[in-house]
Amino acid sequence: MQPVIAIHGGAGAMSRAAMSPEKEAEYLSALDDILVAAQAVLAQGGSALDAVTEAVTRLEDCPLFNAGHGAVFTSAGTHELDASIMDGATLRSGAIANVNCVRNPILAARRVMTDSKHVFFVGEGAEAFARAQGLDIVDPSYFSTDARREQLQRVQAEHPDAAVLDHDGQAMVAGVQRAPEPIDPDRKFGTVGAVAVDAQGNLAAATSTGGVTNKQVGRVGDAPMIGAGCYANNRTCAVSTTGTGEMFIRMVAAYDVSAQMEYAGATLAAAADSVVHHKLPTIDGKGGLIAVDAAGNVVLPFNTEGMYRGYARVGEKPVTAIYR
Ligand code: ASP
User: Fold this and answer.
1) Angle at alpha carbon of residue 204, lines to 7 and 212, rounded to 5°
2) What is the model's pTM?
3) Domains in the chain, please, with CATH?
4) What is the pLDDT, as a whole number, of residue 71?
5) In sequence order, what are the residues at sequence separation of 6 or more whose Cβ sits closer than 8 angstroms to the Cβ of residue 279?
6) Separation CA 70–CA 64 (nearest Å)
7) In the structure, what pLDDT confidence band is assigned to residue 324 with cuts at 50, 70 and 90?
8) CA-CA-CA-CA torsion for 308, 312, 316, 321, nearest 10 degrees?
9) Hey, which residues are catalytic here?
10) Which pLDDT belongs to residue 156?
11) Is the CB of 209 under 6 A from ligand 1?
């Protein structure tokens, strides 16, 4: 079994015109660095779980992506971070939502999985749990960047009632309607995630996000929901999603890929294609996902113009891309 890791940093309408060659290179090199680090974990015999944790922790620390440092703002000018992780070998999983002082939300999700008898903590309880676990606690201002603040100000000036997905900047009102125009074509960042299969054939998935710009306080998307934004099962696949969270929840998107494989005998590629290109579009779901199966197949489909993405097989050079 040749281990492999795949990552994403969000999908959206990332127009080539708005992205300078320097900016493009900056994204590709960030993705490459993160893949190299996670690939090393697998090369040294590390587990898929350790590899996705390594990748997502680094994606959270990188201000280019909307998770951890560099997370988007809520309508109240605050941050509310969500994360989840799942172990395909045991179906153990952990998730947290609505936290604003845990430096790396994915580490808190992992501790929920390994050190609590529960699966999902939210808000103050999640923060108290992270503190008790001795995780790195930061002032909420740690997550703020000038780019995100500008993004919030722009959205609030142009569409005060809309919660805006980074992806293609389409305003979502009440979760379903959208404004005709992209709001911020030069800033497209989304959720981050990773999926991996290790040398033992074990699968794992992890997802982390700051959510959507100008989101209503208390709103939670698909990223921390097992089955919607994250799923792993050794019998089928590991999946991490990014996109219009409300639609991914309604479609139970990540689990649907697995279910199609398990119940209908679909291949990973066919199942992922069905969810991203056929099922999600029926409810105007926009975004993409990354997935691996136990045989080491990797797919990275999206129905937007682009998705920050890449994968690396142990012993091979990482492959990264943004556009189609
Ligand atoms: N899916 C995320 C959410 O709805 C947003 C994203 O992928 O950018 O919170």
Assistant:
1) 50
2) 0.91
3) 4-323 (3.60.20.30)
4) 83
5) 251, 253, 256, 285
6) 7
7) confident
8) -10
9) 191
10) 84
11) yes
